[in-house]
Fold each of these.
Amino acid sequence: MLIILKKEFSAFLNSLIAYIVIGVFLLLTGLVVWIYPDSNVLDYGYADMASFFELCPYILILISPAITMRMLSEEFRTGTIELLFTKPLSTSDIVTGKFLASLSILLLALIPTLIYYFSIYQLGNPVGNIDSASVAGSYFGLVLLASAYSAIGLFTSSLTSNQVVAFIVAATLSYFFYDGLHQLAQLFRGSAQYYTDYFSLSFHYSSLGRGVIDSRNLIFLLSFVVLFIMGTILVLDKKKN
């Protein structure tokens, strides 16, 4: 597993696309926090990162598939997946290694955004006038959300040798599970609305953003990740046989 993780992480960092993806992510989030009229902190007048945490999941919906689309699709296209299967690695080692590599790259993109927090912390009146618990919870939610997007992207990458198809399907599924189910829930009332919304990623991400770490949110999001990882393993095993 660690061999696959190191290989994929190094290969990504040695390619131009890594710096383009991370650069685009930081550019978009920077514009949201500091430039755009409807979301920038300077005009908003309050020391918080609400606009960043509201729009970041949508940016990740496009950034994550750009990272995961080649993880398995490229292996199928070039035929190197057959070589990978001959190595003394289990299918779960291969999938877990690639999943952790894609997640590590997303975390690498998220780390520089901590500068936004420290900048807003200093801009507060008085200094430090920011809900740090909410920020910490939202960042934790973003990590789990990035994990979910990575698992979805890896799964779609295992279904096709076409990277563009893998990207489109991953972005579509990520949007559906994040916001699509939430929008669908608005068509219902009562318990039907609640439970439909409960299965959306945004429901649990928003809960974590309140600064309270609820085990139910953790269990749901981690189970979601495991489900798609298991799906990827099953697809690879089927193709392997």
Amino acid sequence: MRAAWISASDGGRLRCELCPHGCAIAEGKFGLCGVRANSRGEGQLPLAGRPSSLAIDPIEKKPLYRFLPGTMVYSVGFFGCTMRCPFCQNWEISQHTTERGLPYPSTDLIADAVESGCPSIAFTYSEPTVHFEYVLEAASHAREAGLKTVLVTNGMLAAGPAEELMSTIDAVNLDIKCFSPAAYRRVLGGDLPTVLEFARIAARHSWLEVTTLVVPGLDEWEVAVGGISDFLSGLSPHIPLHLSAYHPAWNYDAPPTSPNLLEKLRALAAERLESVYVGNVAGEKSTDLCSECGAILVERQGFRVTRMGLSGISGIFGPPLASPSSRCANCGHPEFFITR
């Protein structure tokens, strides 16, 4: 598969314009992601359509708590990434691109997803946007087949490709890993302004939820969570924020996140956002209540929905974050959940 968003540069190099790194790729070499290559002066994608992982997951595992709650999602992962987070939990596939999965044409992928009975397909696990062309093709086929589409991403995608891709995506879980531009560059190998612009684009097109892994020492977390929740509330106070506990992984051995810190940060973010969740904690429970009558809308134990109190509204009126698309089954009050 040939690469999009790539152009000729000096000395036989190709300039990749997909992400803010803007790699100038020499003949026979790959960009920083390890996926996008220069082969005889053409942008090539030797790993395109070669998944690293396939599974059927609860949608809550993405995590998406207000998009198709209680359903399963057909999930496909890839190799490569645009970042170098030292605490990456999927480093075996994000940082290694010498492996070669078996070819999986996008039409076959979507046919299998439909056959699974899942109402949606997720591009997830490692960073799917480095496989932009394949994801765009597969997401377009998915929508034609009646599947909802989900993207789980670090948001390191330039504005042009982001607008193009988001036109095919129904729901996004975006990692905002901290709120320090310096830490994004120095520790993570990313670019915070690009990620925030991606959030703006995603919020215009799709249902958006955000995850922040609270990694000790990465940021001043009270300041960071205040900044993240302020930013998100400026887009829409209906955007859910997931504050997730870190556990040591790959090249990072700081102690796990304190549950007390997570609860403190959850209360801080809840001053600005309507839905803030704590995740990746043993015995985790969460409950959403009707803002009008207090009845249970969704009750969860870990990734399992144990009680549901929602009914649908016919159609979605405008952008998903602009108008409620569900009702409380008890009193009929409109609520911000996508249930179909």
Amino acid sequence: MNQWIRLALETGPLVVFFVGNTKFGIMPATGAFMVATVVSLGINYAMERRLPVMPLVAGAFIVVFGALTLVFEDSTFIKLKPTVVNLLFAGALFTGLALRRNLLKIVFQTAFQLDDEGWRVLTWRWAFFFVFLALVNEAVWRTQSTDFWVSFKLFGIMPLTMVFGICQVPLILRHQIKEPDGSGT
């Protein structure tokens, strides 16, 4: 799938959440976020005939925590969702490392090929980054207004994640397994 389409499918629901919160408040925005997430996953499935693991897990949590938010009319649930999801991802990566099963490699080996050391280091980095994101989410939602928290999800967390991902490129390039050129020489 085109990278721009993938980015739009991943950020689209967040943009809907941000705009919905700005115009109508957190409760309607949460409902719109849930619908936009399901639509995004549906489009992704229609285009690729599969659902990527991380967006699928995050989407499931958006629906569950969003439903709790709406049923109990308490925004705490939707604010906790990023913390829970990030800790779940970190826990899965740490557990995989402890069991000598590199889950990041399993999920991303079709995107790029790294040697075992590269996968190990990359997994440690992402696991700690997920813990960092959980801590940042906790600090922001507990100390700032709901409007600030919603804005921070789009304009803080998303750019932080992109910058972190870009900062991993030197590691990926250093540990990338080179494909034979097929020239026979």
